[in-house]
Amino acid sequence: MAQYSYHEPVLAPEIIALLVTKPGIYVDGTLGGGGHSLAILCALHEAGYGEGSLLIGIDQDDAALHEAAEKLKEFEARTVLVKGNFKTIGSIVESVCREKGLHPKVTGILLDLGVSSFQIDTAERGFSYLRDGPLDMRMDMDASVSAGDIINTYEEKELARLFYRYGEEPRSRSIARAIVAYRLKNGSVTGTEELAGIIRENAAGRDKIIKTLSRVFQALRIEVNSELEVLRSVLYDGIACLDSYGRMAVISYHSLEDRIVKTVFAEKARSDWGPKGVGLREPLERGSVSLVTRKPVVAARQEIDANPRARSAKLRVIEKI
Ligand SMILES: C[S@@+](CC[C@H](N)C(=O)[O-])C[C@H]1O[C@@H](n2cnc3c(N)ncnc32)[C@H](O)[C@@H]1O
Asked: Is the pTM here over 0.90, yes or no?
């Protein structure tokens, strides 16, 4: 497979095997550098499905769209790239299909959650405690709220709740207290290195510093981009867009995301048998999807060695009934 410097796609062969089963409309809701999209388009082409297929790539980050457009050039005629949030997947699919005269039902949807390596490695985007940059963390640079707005305006209690809820950080309260004290003394917290310094001073011990830094930065990123709310909505709306036997594959990278994916998939797969003890022969309502993966697919040792980002990846797939 080709080399990707912008972002190495995770679990790519597994995605192809589980998602690309027939020709049709595929949506990559997290286009990034286009690594997964390229793999999907190549697989469709190699299977002889290219003619009857279209890939809709969505990303809220202009830099990602730019990178992906370059990478997918050879498949330009079968690709539509859209700047937008995947929470509006329904209306994006509707409008692309209307323009192309296609029936707006989708054969495959991929969501590879979180941020790309490129976004993390770009200091000016402010995603990493390892690089000094502004407290930004917006995936969509047109969005109004940045990490700096949150760090500098939230009350102590709100900050503590945020670090606990979205970072599962045990020292959430003392870190929130230290941030507010720093603000009172210095006016504001302006950069990632400044914030990392406050967190370092308040982490429980040297060995815990990295974990605490990751958890607090993760919490902020989730809040800035409303990541859990938009995930919940794209799961429901994505399933609604799927054609019969269409599939949705989701790669998550932390337990908060995976819990939502697992719960929504299980809920949509469950049939309603009415109150206990009624003994119906047929359910009142059948589940609308089946679970293709009962347990999440994880990366093999070889992939993890080559790409450490794959370590925490969990892939779940459902099929519309
Ligand atoms: C992990 S990267 C995807 C990498 C991609 N699979 C590849 O192979 O290059 C996630 C991408 O999804 C985008 N993204 C995350 N949440 C999004 C959302 N709610 N709507 C649109 N794009 C989103 C990010 O901007 C980022 O470019």
From this structure: yes
Instruction: Give the domain ranges of the chain.
Output: 12-117+227-320, 144-224
| Cα–Cα distance for residue pair 299/136, rounded to 1 Å | 31
In this prediction, residues 48-62 reach a mean pLDDT of 96
Measured by CA distance, the residue closest to atom 8 of ligand 1 is 35
Closest residue by Cα to atom 24, ligand 1, is 115
For the chain, what percent of residues have pLDDT higher than 70?
98
CATH of segment(s) 144-224: 1.10.150.170
Cα dihedral value 212, 215, 217, 219, nearest 10: -140
* Domain 12-117+227-320 indexed as CATH 3.30.2380.10: no
Distance, CA of 33 to CA of 1 (rounded, Å): 15
85 lines ligand 1 (CB under 6 A): yes
Distance between CA atoms of 175 and 7, rounded to whole angstroms? Answer: 32
Which residue is closest in CA terms to ligand 1's atom 7? 35
Q: Is the Cβ atom of 32 under 6 angstroms away from ligand 1?
A: yes
CA distance 37 to 29: 10
Cβ(30) – ligand 1 distance below 6 Å: yes
